[in-house]
Design brief:
The protein is an all-alpha fold. It contains 18 helices and no strands.
Length: 479
């Protein structure tokens, strides 16, 4: 008997989500996301110490870019893995890959090896994240979906509080490697619990079609080209990289539109339809938050913060996400629509404040660091208040036989936007002075350029949310 049969069709509040076997499933789904999120923020916190030890500041954004692009591949293969093996094996595979990546990073003798480990970690993390969305609709009844998704979103934020703590403590102790290997035992324990408790069956709407390899190749190439161009000191190379990247993105859209094996559900590439507008909004939100990857470095360089404190301040974006998800996860109808429509303006306000306060001299100005903290909370709050409702509408808008694909598309679009955003952030930061002239002056210039540039994504999201109505698109509309 499935959880869907055992659980009441109505869910009033959060109590039912944590009742009986629902609680076990909730812990497993949230736990996978927690490992992924903790790892991401550990890396962000210790990376200034890593480059100080083994060099490679020009590749600072690559740690995030490679991690995220590998996560895309993991999330894209999630529907096939679920269809062939079911949730139980899927979670064990994800944990094994994640553990291998963590150990590679922990013992990396150089930046190239560490980046390889980050890519392996990303593959496992992408599986974890996509599995959480896909398995939610398998083990919970539909009335619990918004609450389960709100929990996943909130746990992401809660877990990121542990990341800066672990990373910061080890960085200040001069042992950044331990921050990575400390995750391996947790992943192994998680694999054992998932192997015992998760259902073995595959989803009913599983597809036997393989992953859309051509789209994945183009997608990966577009991110790698932009990342490679970002470290060049030649303006001609940078410009050529941007042109090639745009051409690859255009080619990706053409191939995806015509392909029989798609990453996105039907209607997912048309921003005039609710499905396309939702996915576009997800992408823009992810792009808008990418200055976050440089926050720990900027706080240490511009405001003299320790690794631990800088990591915790950077995690305030996740705190805002968590608070908003918990506060708005149970909203529905007009209230949910208002949350979605207000979100871009809150994100934009946070980025504007960051553009003003990050480069400011905090000496003798006690308000600067608190203002930075408030701005980070605002960015996260704006995204978190919309996120559960965006994801719920994607599920509702998908035809029944495409819901597993829709779950994978959420993560793929999110991660692709994050990877492109991270690559663009590295390019913008390097071009605006992070490496040359470097130091405080270069960091201040990079801070302004990052916040202003990525504020444009939040502004664009204010337009895409206008296509998202009170009800999700019907199957007819998305065909």
């Amino acid at each position: 008997m499935t959880a869907q049969v055992r659980t009441s069709a109505r869910a009033d509040g959060w109590r039912e989500l944590f009742a009986g076997r629902n609680a076990i499933f909730a812990v497993i789904l949230a736990g996978g996301v927690a490992l992924h999120a903790v790892n991401l923020y550990i890396a962000a916190t210790v990376l200034p110490s890593v480059v100080s030890d083994i060099g490679g500041i020009e590749y600072y954004a690559w740690s995030t870019t490679l991690f995220v692009i590998a996560s895309i591949l993991g999330s894209a293969f999630t529907p096939s893995l679920l269809g062939a093996q079911g949730p139980r094996v899927g979670y064990v595979v994800a944990a094994a890959i994640f553990t291998a990546g963590a150990l590679t990073c922990a013992f990396a003798p150089s930046m190239p090896v560490l980046l390889a480990g980050r890519a392996v970690q990303g593959l496992g993390g992408g599986l974890f994240y996509a599995l959480a969305y896909a398995v939610t609709r398998m083990v919970f009844p539909e009335p619990l979906w918004p609450k389960a998704l709100g929990l996943i979103s909130a746990i992401w934020g809660v877990a990121t509080l542990a990341g800066p703590a672990v990373g910061g403590i080890f960085a200040e102790a001069g042992d950044w490697r331990a921050a990575f290997w400390s995750l391996a035992p947790l992943a192994i324990i998680f694999a054992i619990v998932a192997a015992i408790m998760m259902p073995p069956q595959a989803p009913r709407d599983r597809t036997e079609q393989p992953a859309p390899l051509l789209q994945l190749v183009i997608l990966t190439a577009s991110v790698l080209v932009l990342s490679a161009a970002s470290v060049s000191t030649s303006s001609a190379v940078v410009a050529s990289g941007i042109v090639v990247t745009l051409a690859l993105v255009a080619g990706l859209l053409v191939v995806e539109t015509k392909a029989r094996r798609r990453i996105t559900p039907v209607g997912g590439l048309d921003p005039r339809l609710p499905m396309g507008a939702i996915l576009a909004t997800v992408a823009l939100f992810m792009i808008a938050m990418q200055p976050e990857i440089f926050i720990p470095f900027l706080l240490q360089t511009l405001h003299g913060q320790s690794p631990l404190i800088a990591g915790y301040i950077a995690s305030l974006m996740a705190v805002g996400w968590t608070l908003a998800s918990l506060a708005t996860g149970k909203w529905s109808g007009d209230a949910a629509v208002r949350a979605i429509h207000a979100a871009p303006y809150i994100v934009l306000a946070g980025l504007v404040i960051l553009a003003i306060t990050l480069p400011a001299d905090s000496a003798g100005r006690p308000w600067v660091v608190p203002a930075i903290s408030l701005a980070l909370i605002l960015v996260g709050f704006g995204i978190g208040m919309a996120w559960p409702h965006l994801v719920t509408r994607i599920f509702a808008a998908s035809p029944p036989n495409q819901q597993t694909q829709a779950a994978g598309a959420i993560t793929t679009v999110q991660l692709y936007a994050s990877a492109m955003g991270a690559a663009a952030a590295g390019m913008i930061a390097n071009a605006s002075g992070l490496v040359d002239p470097g130091g405080r002056s270069g960091a201040a210039q990079a801070a302004v350029a990052l916040c202003v540039s990525f504020g444009l994504a939040a502004a664009l999201a204010a337009f895409t949310v206008g296509r998202i109505g009170n009800k999700a698109a019907s199957n007819k509309e998305t065909k």
